Amino acid sequence: MTDLSVDQSINGSSGSDAGARDALRVASWNDYVSLLKPRVMSLVVFTGFVGLMAAPGTLHPVLAAVALLCIAVGAGASGALNMWFDADIDAVMMRTRKRPIPRGVVAADDALIFGSLLSAASITIMWMAVGWVPAALLALTIGFYLFVYTMWLKRRTPHNIVIGGAAGALPPVIGWAAVTGNVTIEPIVLFLIIFMWTPPHFWALALYRAGDYEKAGVPMLPVVLGKQATRLQALLYSVLLAPVALAPYVLGFAGIAYAVVAGLCSILFVALAAQLWHLGRVANGEGTAEKRAEHAARRLFSFSLFYLFALFLALLVEHLAGWAA
User: Which stretches does DSSP call E strand in the chain?
Assistant: First the structure.
């Protein structure tokens, strides 16, 4: 998963002066917090919490808190290791050039040690306090994000987001396994919702950040196949996502309230993706029409965040209120 913040460009001597000032100061705790990608972490923890609450059975509140803390720390560790490996391209991209390593306030080796220690600690504590199944899943999540997505896929294939999205889809499975000690069809469905949501979510971002990715040499879909092909893929994945989003209701571990939220939000998601595709077809890379297509990509990206939050919140509320089937 990537940092969702939008950085402002730094030009001329002012950018150099700012970098020099950053290099002179000692890293603060806030710089290390930034390494953890806290915005990404918050979504990971939330989906993990929903998986934990939706699972049958109970877990002692202290152990539940430990499990969520381990998920959070593991997600943060993944972010730190990602920034360590991607420091070279982060320095090139406008969106990421203010991260601690490109700014010179945290050394790359320190980020590697920091992320490695947090990874080991989160997996070990999860294993000792909650069980080996959620610990193994947490280790799989961190390893997949670092070795499969960051090191292997990201710089080699435009399908990096499609396959790499598996890492971001695992937290609700970890939460479920923390309670039950196993993995059944229900957490797999929650995994699939996030897995299918990830491509249109990040492709929408990539559409209006295509220049950044091209400059950094990252083969995101708009850079390799063009923007209109990306818009079409985003629409197709949005259509495929809709029935997957309704699966919890069909399988009986979500109620009618969830079905209504998932149905309405999926209709809006598909409509925004269709609008994006249509505007791109009309624009054909020209002037004001292309600007409208870019704004449509931003709308889809923003709504996609609301979409995932709304679905998991509806599932959470149903289970807390006892409305789920």
Answer: none
| Domain range summary for the chain, segments of one domain joined by + | 20-183, 187-325
Please choose, from the candidates 144, 183, 171, 184, the residue with its C-alpha nearest in 3D space to the C-alpha of residue 71: 171
Euclidean distance between CA atoms 222 and 287, whole angstroms: 18
Give the C-alpha distances (Å, rounded to integers) separating 256 from 197, 221, 240, 246, 261.
21, 37, 21, 10, 9
Please tell me whether the overall predicted TM-score, pTM, comes out greater than 0.85 for this model.
yes
- Name the residue with tokens 């807390």: 320
Lowest mean pLDDT: which of 79-88, 89-98, 266-275? 89-98
Q: Over the stretch 6-18, which tens digit does the pLDDT of each residue have?
A: 333 333 334 444 4
- Strand (E) or helix (H) holding 247: helix 227-251
Backbone angles phi, psi at 8, to 5 degrees: -85, 150
Q: Could you identify the residue written with the tokens 């079905």?
A: 259
Widest pairwise Cα distance in the chain:
62
Question: Which conformational region is residue 59 in: left (phi greater than 0), alpha (psi within -120 to 50 degrees), or beta?
Answer: beta
Record: fold of 20-183: Tetracycline Repressor; domain 2 (1.10.357)
